[in-house]
Amino acid sequence: MKLQSYALHNYRKIAQIEKLSPAQTEAIEVVGNVLPFKTNNYVVDELIDWDNLENDPMFKLTFPQKGMLSEEHYESMKIVLNHSSNRDEIRNMANIIRNELNPHPAGQMEHNVPEINGEKLMGMQHKYKETVLFFPSQGQTCHAYCTFCFRWPQFVGMDELKFAAKEASLLQEYVQKNTQVTDILFTGGDPMIMKAKIFASYIDPLLETEISNLQTIRIGTKALGYWPYKFTSDDDADEMLRLFERVIKKGLNLSIMAHFSHPVELETEAVKEAIKRLRGVGVQIRTQSPVLKHINDSPEIWSDMWRKQVNLNCIPYYMFIPRDTGAQDYFAVPLEEAWQIFRKAYQKVSGVCRTVRGPSMSCTPGKVQVLGVSEIRGEKVFVLRMLQGRNPDWVARPFFAKYDATAIWMDNLEPAFEEERFFFEEEHEWLFNEAVNEHERDVFE
C-alpha cells in the first residue's frame, strides 16, 4: 500500500467524508486550525468504522472533535474563520488559544535540556539519569496525529517549541561523557517516519564507537498502529530491519516502545505481519497508551488489548494518564476512575500480561503511579509512588494525597495527614533554584 496522508487542506478528498455531519465537518475546520490534524489511508480504510462515527474510537482519536476546545476557544476560532480568510489573523487567534493550553508541560523546556561544553542540546532531554531522550530533526512528524498527544506544539508551526537535534555526533559525545546513561530513547514526532538510510545516520555512529555504558536503544513510535507497512512493504522496510539486526548483533537491547490505544489497532493482518517481522530479527516490543475518555476508558478494552498484545509476543508496559496539556479536558478521566479501570483490567488477565504499570503521570518531579484509594487513620487518601524520579532516591517510596474525586492530575492533589508538602517538594525546589551550583544539580540529572 502506498501512503496517502490527509490533513486540513485535503481531508475532503477522503471517499468516506460524505458520511460526516455538518457539525462534524465544522469541528474539523475549527479545531483543526488550533490542534494538529493528520491521518492516512490505512487509518481511514482499516481502523475507522464509518458507519458508527458517533461511537468510533479511532475516529475520535485521529479527527478533531468539538469538545477538544473549550466553548470559549471554539467560538473565538469559529468567529475568526467565519469573518476572515487572512491566514495571519487565523494563525494569531490559533496561537493565542494554543498558548493557553499549556503547550509544554512538566518543565520540558526549562528543566530537561542537557548541556555539553557549555552548549545547550535543544534536541535532547535528560530527566532521569539512566535515560536520554533524543529528538532527531528528521523525525519531527508522524504518520498520523493522536489528538491527545502532549507533543502537539511540534506539529502546528510553533518553532520555538520544537525539539530537534541535527548532529548525531553530539548525542554520541554526550552519552560517552555521561557514563550513568544506559538508554537512548529516540522519540519525536515519530522516528519511524524517517527512511532507513536517514535513521541509520543516527544509529551507526553509536554502533561504530565503543560506548561501554550504552545498553539499550529504544524507539518510541506509533508506526505499528498507524502505518505497519513501514516494516513490511515500504521500499526500505528490509533495510530498516537489517539496521535493527546490526543493533542487536552489537549486543544492545533494541526496544520498540509501541503506542496502541485500542484493540482495533492490533487486529489487522498488516500489523500482525509487521510485529512478526520485527520479532523475527530480535526486536523487543513494549506497548503503552494513556487511558482516554471516549477511546479506551473501560477495563474490558484494556484487558482485551493486553491479551492481544501478549498473544502477538509484545510486552504490556505502561498505562499513562494523559498529560496536562492540549485537549486534556476532552480525554481525561478522574484519577480514581483510571485506577479502577487499571485494577479491574489487571484482574481479568494472567500473569504474563501483568508486566504493565500504571496508571502513571509523567509530571515535573517524575513518573507518579496511582496505587489506589484507601482509608488510613480515618482519612480517605490516594496511595501513590514514584516509578521514576529526578532524584533516584525518590523511586518506589509510597506517599499519600488527600482524596479528591475530581482530580485528574498531580497538580490537583494535596498532601494527606495535614502535611504541608509532599516528601520530594523541598528538594525538588532546591534542584531548580537558580542559586544552586550547576555541579550540585548535575548529581540528580
What's the arrangement of secondary structure elements?
Layout: E1 5-7, H1 22-31, E2 38-40, H2 41-47, H3 57-62, H4 71-83, H5 87-98, H6 108-111, E3 115-116, E4 119-120, E5 124-128, E6 131-134, H7 168-177, E7 183-186, H8 196-208, E8 216-221, H9 223-226, H10 237-249, E9 253-259, H11 269-280, E10 284-290, H12 299-311, E11 315-320, H13 328-331, H14 335-347, E12 357-362, E13 366-376, E14 379-389, E15 398-402, H15 425-431, H16 438-442
Helix pairs in contact: 4-5, 8-10, 12-14
CATH architecture of one domain: Alpha-Beta Barrel
What is the CATH superfamily classification of one domain?
A: Aldolase class I
The CATH topology of one domain corresponds to TIM Barrel
Tell me the span between the first and last alpha carbons: 44 Å
Structural class: alpha/beta
Description:
The protein has 445 residues and is of the alpha/beta class. Among the domains are: 5-98, no CATH class; 108-323, Aldolase class I (TIM Barrel, Alpha-Beta Barrel). Helix content is 33%, strand content 18%. It has 16 helices and 15 strands. It has helices spanning 22-31, 41-47, 57-62, 71-83, 87-98, 108-111, 168-177, 196-208, 223-226, 237-249, 269-280, 299-311, 328-331, 335-347, 425-431, 438-442; strands spanning 5-7, 38-40, 115-116, 119-120, 124-128, 131-134, 183-186, 216-221, 253-259, 284-290, 315-320, 357-362, 366-376, 379-389, 398-402. The strands form 3 sheets. The chain has an 11-stranded mixed beta sheet with strand order 5-6-7-8-9-10-11-12-13-14-15. A hairpin with a 2-residue loop joins strand 3 (115-116) and strand 4. Helix 4 runs antiparallel to helix 5 (87-98), helix 8 (196-208) packs parallel to helix 10 (237-249) and helix 12 (299-311) crosses helix 14 (335-347). The longest helix has 13 residues, at 71-83. The termini are far apart. 42% of the residues are buried. Mean pLDDT is 90; it is low at 160-164 and 434-445.
